[in-house]
Amino acid sequence: MTTAPALLRPDGTPVRVLVVDDEVNIAELISMALRYEGWVVETVHTGTKAVAAAKEHQPDAVVLDMMLPDFDGMEVLRRMRGTDPDVPVLFLTARDAVEDRIAGLTAGGDDYVTKPFSLEEVVARLRALMRRSGAQQAATSSLLTVGDLILDEDSHEVRRGGTEISLTATEFELLRFLMRNPKRVLSKAQILDRVWNYDFGGQANVVELYISYLRKKVDAGREPMIHTMRGAGYVLKPAAGS
Length: 242
Known about the structure:
This protein is an alpha/beta fold. The chain folds into 2 domains: about 5-135, Response regulator (Rossmann fold, 3-Layer(aba) Sandwich), CATH 3.40.50.2300; about 145-235, Arc Repressor Mutant, subunit A (Orthogonal Bundle), CATH 1.10.10.10. It has helices spanning about 25-35, 45-55, 75-85, 100-105, 120-130, 170-180, 190-195, 205-220, and strands at about 5-10, 15-20, 40-45, 60-65, 90-95, 110-115, 135, 145, 150, 160, 165, 225-230, 235. The strands form 4 sheets. The chain has a 5-stranded parallel beta sheet, with helices on both faces. It has a 4-stranded antiparallel beta sheet with strand order 8-9-10-11, with helices on one face. Strands 1-7 form a two-stranded antiparallel ribbon.
């Protein structure tokens, strides 16, 4: 899995994305994928809150579910465009009829994906929309640093306290995901979807197995950085004093 350069707003700050979906699990998975890209994400679950959030946060792009509990995505889009006529909008729809797609695009949506979709497709489409609207690729460092743990995304080298740690490709992707979200509790479902591209549910034992592999390499003989939050997931945070 490759990671594209981060996108920035013209003023050099991270791009902001509003995710609107009444299915909380889907909204959270999309949000995690977008935060993994280095973007600032706001999540809401109704049309009313979407319109208010768009006005308050002025996002650079919106991921908008067509079917919401209060009013539909096209009405949300109409109200958003009253405040910001140019914000790019990516529709999510469970409908795949041609007339529904045409209706969304005619209403002013910029693109759409049909459920079920891959998170990679959502990210790729958003990147394309935001580049067209002026977002720029960031010339950022390839280093991720949490406490005394350093991961180089380009060379795939990992060091802790100056000591090199050898990881398999999957261990590296798992550690990168943890380090991209320091101090954030990540559920097994989120880890499965991002690292293994599995739908949430099932196969959680593979996460436990690879967390144990990582602990033996990253935490062995040292103050632990990888912690289990029972019933919630896992979190990586700097060791005390590092």
